[in-house]
Amino acid sequence: MVQIEYLDIEEQKEYEELIKKVVKQCFIEEKLENTNLYIAITLTNPKNIQKLNREYRNIDKETDVLSFPMFEKEEIKKIISQKEHIVEDTLGDIVISIKRVEEQANEYGHSFERELAYMIVHGFYHLMGYDHIEEKDKLEMRPKEEKILQDLNITRI
After folding, report:
1. Rounded to the nearest 5°, which phi and psi values hold at 39?
2. Of 25-29, 39-43, 74-78, which gets the smallest average pLDDT?
3. Among 13, 15, 23, 43, which one is least packed by beta carbons within 10 Å?
């Protein structure tokens, strides 16, 4: 379901427990638990995520999370509706800047756990083909994100 890697930061088992719990809930919510899909999540530092952002998006600044989907939204819907096992494949890659998670948790006044969980869920929904550029898309994506966090009882406080 999830493969976790560290790039130039120290490994933390508590990160891994939270990531696995959140990804599992995302898969259950979107009916992906019976597929052979998995997500590759890389935890890194601002320098590395800025490099990736520049290389893949032509934006030369650091960010908090990057998502690299492997399927279009309609392809994912088809995989779910077929209800048959596919060959093991990645749903996509998520890269998270742990330093930015720490900073944003402080900035927004909530826990590191809540901010990391949100980054995972946010990245997951980008892999699922959701976006938040247009207001109508944001109105579809945000409630899905919040539902996952509420189901896991990961609150803002």
Report:
1. -115, 135
2. 74-78
3. 13
Condensed to tens digits (0 to 9), the pLDDT of residues 12-28 reads 999 999 999 999 999 99
Residue labelled with tokens 């901010």: 115
Q: Quote the pLDDT of residue 83.
A: 60
In sequence order, what are the residues at sequence separation of 6 or more whose Cβ sits closer than 8 angstroms to the Cβ of residue 69?
A: 91, 92, 126, 127, 128, 129
Measure the CA–CA gap between 142 and 148, rounded to whole angstroms.
Answer: 10
Tokens of 132: 């938040």
Provide the strand spans (E) within the chain: 2-6, 37-44, 65-69, 89-97
Q: Kindly report the number of other CB atoms within 10 A of residue 123's CB atom.
A: 25
CA 99-100-105 angle, to 5 degrees, is 105
User: pLDDT tens digits for 143-155?
Assistant: 999 999 999 999 8
Contacts with 135 (C-beta within 8 Å, 6 or more apart), sequence order:
none
- Calpha distance 147→153 (Å, rounded): 10
The per-residue pLDDT for 106 is 96
Cα–Cα nearest to 148, from 2, 1, 17, 25: 25
Amino acid (one-letter) located at 54: R
